[in-house]
Amino acid sequence: MGKLFGTDGIRGVVNQSLDAPLAYRVGQAAAVVLGQNNQHRPCVVVGRDTRISGDLLEGALIAGLCACGADVITLGVISTPAVAYLTAWGGADAGVVISASHNSFEYNGIKFFGPNGRKLSDEAEEEIEALILAQESLPLKQGAELGHVRHCEAWAEEYINHLAEKVTQPLTGLKVLIDCANGAACATAKKLFSRFPLQVRFIHDTPDGVNINRDCGSTHLKKLGQEVAAGGYDIGVAFDGDADRCLIVNEKGEEVDGDKMMAVCAEHLKAQGRLPGGGFVGTVMSNLGLHRYCESRGLKLLCAPVGDRYVLEMMEREGMSLGGEQSGHIIFMDEMPTGDGQLTALHFLQIVCQEGKTVSELVGAIPRYPQVLLGAKASLYVDERRAVMQNPRLTEAISAAEGKLGKEGRILIRPSGTEALIRVMVEAMDAAQAQEIAEELLKLIQELQKNQ
């Protein structure tokens, strides 16, 4: 993680820590780095979500790319995984998504993919970051060497076709409510899910630039749960702003998180002989209940650091094809180069149809320990967040709290890779104890930041 790039690209509040001059400079630096070892003019695929700031940042980024000699293919509003897939499908040198995923509308971000549709390598990101932060001007192209732009919104159909082809079993008979989070899923979800004999209704599908993720989507499941229970739906599906995450609610309106979704998918794939490595990759945030369940079912569960790039790295290293995060960012590596909320939804819907059980029956045996998640507002600068993490007072407090919890609980404190936060997670058999310890640690972190 560098000074600008977190675990998921560059992210910040627009016209505060992320503005048009920075986006222009990012485009310039990317064009220079991508063009260094190429015998051809580099080509970059660009997509964005529905945020009001998307136009501003997209224009500046494209201007920087073209100014330094890269051609650009624009996809318009489209999901993050669609950009990843279409970058590889279209033979481009890189892909860029302008999105802040699950964050509120005032945030935005710039995230890169490599030519294979996976996250751009750390080395390439470091080169780009070094050029962005350098004081000298970057070399501008002139005349015929300038980059040009092609608008290819129609490429979205190829992405939709690819996802639809992954449905190999009958997908019928379910009453489904889908929350598009007023985000990127609005551009593709209706076209995709209408291909199947499902009774589907969509909500939060009218983006206006400022309502993305606002009281909706995978980070706000309350309304979806209420409507599912009241309307007699079999399942509710919620995407986040850029549609790389998917969470569901059962027929009672109760949340089913990514841990439980992965366990259900893993068991189903194992029964079909399609689970390489005999298990899947979660993260250090994966609930202790998931660990206990996997042990009882003979499923191997490995835990990577938080962040889909780390999950994917461990999947590749351990020869596993399924992995993801509690947040609903789930990767089916044999089918997509990154996590895809709409693909995840299709997989889960197929399982519900084939098993002939309600969602609550499918996940009912998977326990969940009480888990408290809190966030302390932190510096925008990654280095300052790290300094708090390394403070001896925090280390001592964590050790003392772990002693209270013993073997039936755990603590995880980490700087967010996507927001200016330090996150505190405490799990315990006793919910009140978990809450008390989490609040004590949060208070200490806030104190340490004031004294920096």
Describe this structure in words.
The strands form five sheets. This protein has a six-stranded mixed beta sheet, sandwiched between helices. Strands 8-7-9-10-11 form a five-stranded mixed beta sheet. It has 15 helices and 18 strands. The protein has four domains: 10-155, Alpha-D-Glucose-1,6-Bisphosphate, Chain A, domain 3 (3-Layer(aba) Sandwich); 172-256, 3-Layer(aba) Sandwich (Alpha-D-Glucose-1,6-Bisphosphate, Chain A, domain 3); 259-341 and 350-368, Alpha-D-Glucose-1,6-Bisphosphate, Chain A, domain 3, CATH 3.40.120; 371-450, Alpha-D-phosphohexomutase, C-terminal domain (TATA-Binding Protein, 2-Layer Sandwich). The longest helix is centred in the C-terminal third of the chain and has 20 residues, at 431-450. 38% of the residues lie in helices and 20% in strands. The radius of gyration is 22 Å and the shape is globular. Helix 1 crosses helix 4 (122-133) and helix 14 (392-405) packs antiparallel against helix 15. The mean pLDDT is 93. The chain has helices at 20-35, 54-67, 80-89, 122-133, 156-164, 189-193, 222-231, 258-271, 288-297, 308-318, 341-355, 359-363, 382-389, 392-405, 431-450, and strands at residues 10-13, 43-48, 71-77, 94-98, 107-113, 149-151, 175-179, 199-203, 235-239, 246-249, 255-256, 279-283, 300-304, 322-324, 330-332, 371-377, 409-415, 421-428. The protein is α/β, with parallel strands linked by helices and 452 residues long.
